[in-house]
Specification:
This protein is an all-beta fold and 508 residues long. Helices cover 0% and strands 46% of the residues. It has no helices and 38 strands.
Length: 508
Amino acid sequence: MKAINKRTIRMISIYLLLIPFALMKADVVERSGSRDLLDTLSLEYDDSVGINIYPGDVIMEIYRVPADLTLNQVGINIGQWNTNGETAKLQVEVFKQGASSYPYRSDGSLYPYEQEGQNSWLGYAHTETDPSTPYPSVSSGSENLVWNNFNSGAGPCNSLAEQDLGQSIFGDKVLPVGDDSTIVQTPSNLSSGFHYADFSVEGGANFLQDEYIAVVITYIGDSNGSTDEGSLITVSGQRSTYWYYGLFVHPAPGLKYYHSNCSGPSSEQGWYIDDKTPSLNYVANITGTMPPKIEILHVGISSIEPIQEYIPPGTYIRITIRINDAIVELMENVQVVLHWQVNSLDASENVLLQQASCFNLVEQQYHYCAKIEQYYSSGTRIYWWVTAEDEDGNIATTTKKSFMFGTLSVDDETIPSAFNLQGNYPNPFNPTTKINFSVQSPSEMDLTVYAMDGKLVRKILIGNVGTGYHSISWDGKDQSLNSVSSGIYFYRLDAGAQSQTGKMTLLK
C-alpha cells in the first residue's frame, strides 16, 4: 500500500529519572497527519500470558482512544480452542464507558488496583426477570442487568464484601446494533491466532479521543457452566501489572467474570479485576488527528540495570522513552512533561518539564534529560505518567503507573508456605534479569541456565538461603563470563531435593 503524505519520521527519546513499566501503544498500519486513515490499534505490555475461560465466563478489556475514530473490527488472539468437539461461541460486544461504568466508581474515583485476588471482587449481576440466575446466561438476551450487593455488601458464597463504591461494569452498548449477536466460533481446523468480529456492515461505532472502549467477550457453549478441560479456551493475553513487585497500571485494563457459582479467586461468582488483559486488535478508521506516540524502551535503576522488587528510599529510577510523530514539522518543539502524584490518585500533581538534550552514543539519538530530586521514604507510592504535545497542540498521554519505595512494614510480610519460583523480570530482557523465588525453610540453593539444545550455559552457586522471598540476577553471560547471544534460555532453581524451572528470552 502506498503511504499517504509520506515524510521522514524523526525519533526523539526521553531519558527520565523515575519508574516503571508497560505503556499503551498503537501498532500503526499506516501513519499520517491526514484524517480517515485505517489503523490497527492495541495495548502492549511486557509479558505474554494465557487467559483460560470456560463456558459462561466473560473477559473484558478497556482501551482509551488516542484520537477520534470509528471502530470497525475487533480481533481476538486465540491461543487454543476447545478440544471437546463442540462448537464454542465467543459473543463479542462493544460498550462506550462513562462516569457511571468501569473504570470509575460511583464517586468518580478509580478502583484501587492494588487490591488483588479476592479483594478485587466487584460484585455480580442478574437480569431483571430472574434474580436467581447470575449474568451471563445463554437465555439472558438483551434484558437489563441489575447489580447485586452494592447496598448489602455481602456475596452469595462467603458473604465477602465487594470493593467500596461499586456500580455497574458496563456503559452504553454500541455494537452490535440491536439484538443481533456477533459471534466468533471454533473453526473446523482449530486454528489459533487472531479471529475477528466484524462490525463494518453496521457502520462501526464512533468514539472521541480519550473515551474508553470496552470489549466484552462471553464464552457461550453447549456445556454452559462446565469446567471440563475439553471445554477450555485459552485467549492469548498480556500481563498488565506485577503484584509481586507492587507495580500497577491505573486503571486496570482487564476484568474477568467467573460464571460458575463460587468459582472466583475469593470463591465468589462475579466480576474481578485481573492482572491480565486479552491481546485485542482494534481495527479503526482514524477520523481525528493522531497525537505523538510515546514508547517506553527501558525501566531500571540505571541505563542498563532493571528495577528490583525492593527500591531503596531516595533511589532514582530511570525510564527511557521514545516519542515519534509522522509530521516532522510538528516535532521540532515537542514538549514532554513528567507528571506524578504521591500516595494517592487524588493528591496534588507535580510536574517536571524537559531539560537540556543529551546524546546517547549507543542508540545514536538525542534524549531529553530530567531529574526527580525529591527524597521519598519507605512506604511512599508514586503514581506517574508522561505527556507529549506537538506544535499543533496534539497531546499524547500515557496510562498512569505506580511503584513504591521500600516496604510498608517488614512485620507485615508473610512467611512462604512452600518453595516457589515466581518467574523472572523483566522478560524479555537485556542484558540482566532477576529471578524471584521463595522458600519456606532454610535451603542450599543453586541456579542453572541451559540453552535451547540442553547445553549448560551457566551454573551459579547461591548457597544457604533463609526462609522468605528472594531473588538472584543473571547477567546474560556463560560460565566463562562471555556474553551469550539472543535467544530463549531455560533455567532450573534447586533447593535441596526440590527444583523448579522457568523460561526467559534474551533480546539484544
